[in-house]
Specification:
This protein is an alpha/beta fold. The protein has 5 helices and 7 strands; from the N terminus they run βαβαβαββββαα. A 7-stranded mixed β-sheet has the order 2-1-3-4-5-6-7. The radius of gyration is 17 Å and the shape is globular. The model has no long low-confidence stretch (mean pLDDT about 90).
């Protein structure tokens, strides 16, 4: 089954391919040479994922997989949340986002946080299959490890007992928010009687 991943983020596409396996032919927006800029202005992860999936499916006529995910920090009232990718401004980088998070967390003892993902599989007919996933942890006081991307080096995973920045791709994918959401999505996809070629 060919699925267009609604992202230009190569790290996300790599995770999709690793988690979903060879049964699904995941193509990135770069693979199909589609340059489309979708404003993620919803106030929920699901709203952003659905918007991306719908718009790209309409543009391509293909089945589209979209996710919106981010870091939720309890002491910051859920921030960065849906603004995780652009937490430090419009020209944000992973490094600048991590710097801002560390600054915001200065002097705070409650470090509890979770990564959350909402994933939507949208069919040209309008059929929607969705799932979400979360993984619990804490914000570290300094970056630890250089694996992964985004906030990984600042996130201590309760499941793994280590920073995502120290975890291998296999370790992270087994318990990550995106991994859990994709696992549920595949289950939902296989359980549905709906088949589209």
């Amino acid at each position: 089954m060919e699925i267009i991943a609604a992202t230009g983020n190569n790290n996300k596409v790599k995770e999709f391919r690793e988690i979903l396996g060879d049964e699904y032919d995941i193509k990135s927006l770069k693979d199909i040479a589609l340059d489309i800029d979708i404003v993620e202005d919803a106030d929920t992860f699901y709203g952003n994922a659905l918007k991306k999936a719908m718009e790209i499916s309409k543009a391509t006529g293909k089945v589209v997989l979209a996710d919106d995910s981010g870091l939720i920090v309890d002491a910051l009232n859920g921030a960065p949340g849906v603004f995780s990718a652009r937490y430090s401004g419009e020209n944000a980088t992973d490094a600048s986002n991590r710097r801002k998070l560390l600054k915001e967390m200065e002097g705070i003892q409650n470090r509890s946080a979770r990564f959350y993902a909402s994933i939507v599989l949208y069919f040209p007919s309008g059929k929607i299959i969705c799932a979400d996933g979360a993984t619990e942890g804490e914000i570290l006081f300094e970056e630890t490890g250089s694996n992964g991307f985004g906030y990984d080096s600042l996130f201590y995973s309760t499941d793994l007992g280590m920073s995502f920045g120290l975890a291998s791709a296999e370790q992270k994918n087994a318990i990550s928010h995106r991994g859990r959401a994709l696992e549920k999505l595949v289950k939902n996809l296989k359980e549905t009687e709906y088949i589209e070629v």
